[in-house]
Amino acid sequence: MATSTLQDLLIETLRDTYHAEKQLVKALPRMAKAATSEELKAAFNNHLAVTVEQVNRLEQAFELLGAPVRSKRCAAMEGLIEEGKELINEDIEPQVLDAGLIAAAQKVEHYEIAAYGTLRTWAEMLGHTEAAELFQTTLDEEAEADETLTQLAESGVNAEANSAGVEEEDER
Amino acid sequence: MATSTLQDLLIETLRDTYHAEKQLVKALPRMAKAATSEELKAAFNNHLAVTVEQVNRLEQAFELLGAPVRSKRCAAMEGLIEEGKELINEDIEPQVLDAGLIAAAQKVEHYEIAAYGTLRTWAEMLGHTEAAELFQTTLDEEAEADETLTQLAESGVNAEANSAGVEEEDER
Predict the structure, then answer these.
(1) Which residue, of A29, A114, B16, B144, has the greatest Cβ tally within 10 A?
(2) Is some CB atom of chain A closer than 8 A to the CB atom of B87?
(3) What are A119-128's pLDDT values in tens digits?
(4) Which residue in A84, A87, A126 sits closest to A107, CA to CA?
(5) B89 touching A, CB under 8 A?
(6) Pick from B92, B95, B84: which is nearest to B28 by CA?
(7) Residue A1 gets which letter from DSSP?
(8) In 10 A of CB A155, how many CB atoms?
């Protein structure tokens, strides 16, 4: 009923993404606090500032599309954030926790990469050029954030997790 | 408690991913049935065959890692699949539904891209070379599936959704 045209689906996806980003604004400070590595803390705090700006961009997009700013519950992002919370509450080596936090954050980034890719493509097809550019800007930022996390995962942070967690397997 | 080393976290993530893939095996036939475009139906059916093979690969990975084959409920994937189900049940133009199904499937693919990237990196760090190769093979397949969906989204399928759903906006 609510969704019958591509424009409707675009607005609905925008609402879903808006809810996802707002949940992330609440989750990132918890993740920064839980992180051990200073680099990872900095990456989460930096991404919080970026995410706040992305929320603003979504609000601009609502205006450009002539739709009221509204959230729609995003069950997938709730699940992703729930997984991060469970991790923080586990009894776990600090460096292993860092590795897990990176993994949780990369799932969130990939969710957003898929969402903004869809928003950008649909906005372009419907002739909403300015909104499409906003979505592209955020998409580029999300891809960059994912790349930063991959570098952290492959370099220091996971190496520390490895040596902290599995010293006994290290004798080969 | 359960998770204290990177090896434990790897096994836990493997269980989570196993649950996610098994849910996807159940969801893909529904998505293929709901799709209108023959190309999209074929893409979903093809990805079902690929996913069944990916489930087998995960079972091999459990064996290589010396862990029993077990699932752990993956709330994020449940949320993603729930979103797809809601879409199928909406009153929606068939071509617009196709666009929405592509978007839902791309979120699933990106979830898996993040998951397999993590599994591959951790397996490498822990010296599980053979398991890392299995994860890399699946990661490549997921990236390819995402690319196929992007092509479908940018070409025929969304163009049809556009002309079906927003004819009234077409007079500029």
Answers:
(1) A114
(2) yes
(3) 999 999 999 9
(4) A84
(5) no
(6) B84
(7) -
(8) 11
Residue B92's Cβ-side half-sphere holds a number of Cα atoms within 13 Å equal to 27
Please count the residue pairs, one from chain A and one from chain B, whose beta carbons lie less than 8 angstroms apart. Answer: 174
Quick one: tokens of B65?
């890692």
CB contact under 8 A, B6 and A161: yes
Amino acid at A33: K
A158 band by pLDDT with thresholds 50, 70 and 90? low
Between positions 12 and 71 of A, the ones with CB within 8 A of B are: 13, 16
Residues 96-155 of B with CB under 8 A from A: 96, 99-100, 102-103, 106-107, 109-111, 113-115, 117-118, 121-122, 125-127, 150, 153-154
- Give helix B94-125 / helix B129-154 axis angle, nearest 10°: 160
Residue B75 vs residues A9, A84, A137, B24, B80: alpha-carbon distances, Å = 24, 11, 29, 13, 9
Tell me the pLDDT tens digit for each residue of A50-91: 999 999 999 999 999 999 999 998 888 888 888 888 888 888
Measured between beta carbons, the chain B residues lying within 8 angstroms of A110 are 110-111, 113-114
Contact at CB, A125 and B172, closer than 8 angstroms: no
